[in-house]
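Checklist before submission:
- one chain only
- standard amino acids only
- sequence pasted in full

Submission:
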Amino acid sequence: SYPIHPELFDRLSKDWASLEKFQRTRGVLRFMANVVGVLWHGQMRDPLITPARVPVAHERVRVSVLYPLDPAFGSVVDKEVDGEGSLPNRMEANPSRRISQLRAATRAARSVFICTAPLVGQPNAGLTGQGLRLACA
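Returned file contents:
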């Protein structure tokens, strides 16, 4: 069984559900089915699925994430969030560094993306330090 952190459900059912193309119930179920499927096949051993654990670079999840957003977010994901050439991946390239062992840069980038992408253009939208720590837990 995969326990899902309430923060992830809150973000999906509130922030993501505000997007026109993301249906509140179906959108959450479709998104989580893709995330859980990818994590299950990858034999994830983490105790909770948090925003930091969402494998944004995997094609099934990537499609779910990008569908309700502006198409320009594809390059944001590739360069700034997750994937082979992304900034977090380059930061974690040296396996002897602690940031690499914890995948801290990738986890933080995924969290910021999942928690803020649907809020683009809204005043005072963002993620607090406390919110980031919760999303990365």
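Reviewer check: Residues 83 and 89 are 7 Å apart (CA to CA).
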